[in-house]
Amino acid sequence: MxxxxxxxxxxxxxxxxxxxxxxxxxxxxxxxxxxxAKVVKSSKGPxxxxxxxxxKIPKKSKSSKAPKELKSTKSLKAPKSxxxxxxxxxxKSSDNEExxxxxKSSDSEEExxxxKSSDNEVNVWKEFYESTNGDGWNNNAGWLGEDNICDxxxxxxxxxxxxxxxxxxxxxxxxxxxxxxxxxxxxxLNLSHNSIEGTIPETITNLTELGYLTxxxxxxxxxxxxxxxxxxxxxxxxxxxxxxxxxIPDSIGNLKNIDFIGxxxxxxxxxxxxxxxxxxxxxxxxYLLLAGNKIQCxxxxxx
Length: 303
What we know:
Oligomer: single chain
Strand content: 5-15%
Helix content: 40-55%
């Protein structure tokens, strides 16, 4: 009995020591494994984390693509989406057309007053008729009718298709329209002894085929046309007994065919340009009549 007890206790002691050794070995094993685990973790830490590569803030900014979003906002701008530029261009074109039409209308009104307004020559004659009170003329036979203008009173057409206009002593009242410069093939214009007022329009100098211009005894005022020198076919120009003011234009010196200029009893002032007096040196028959003005002339018939 005693022997059995001793053996049982011995077996318990051996088992306890075995268990203790086993536990000790496990602790040693754990303790030995912990450093290795730490080393592994510490060694792998940089590879696993790699914050620069995993985070890659610059790449995220690229992935967000803020610049492209800005571009997209540009694409959403009203001019492109709503096509405002085209509409603006169309509106501009419409505005330009309106302005062009308005400018044309305003220009046409100005051209009606100072011509190149009439595509049809008959309209030019109509403007002249209305501007000088044609209904009140002493004789307006045929004017503005369907007959050829050569059959109108005061219009003489030659076989060379030249036109002479003689409406002297015919009670013309009003003004000479600027559209008179659009009359074609006019070689002689006599409007003397009427009651025409206003100025001699500058556009009359467009009548470059005109040889004889007679405007005596009207009520004309203002200066002489500055570009009268363009009328190089003028042989005679008279506007005596009016109220013309200013001086003698230098361009008169360009009238190479002129023989006689009569401007007596007006309100001219200054002195006669040397270019005009030089005409007398070129042509002994040239005569300049300026009596009754406050003008100095060394080559005139009367000073």
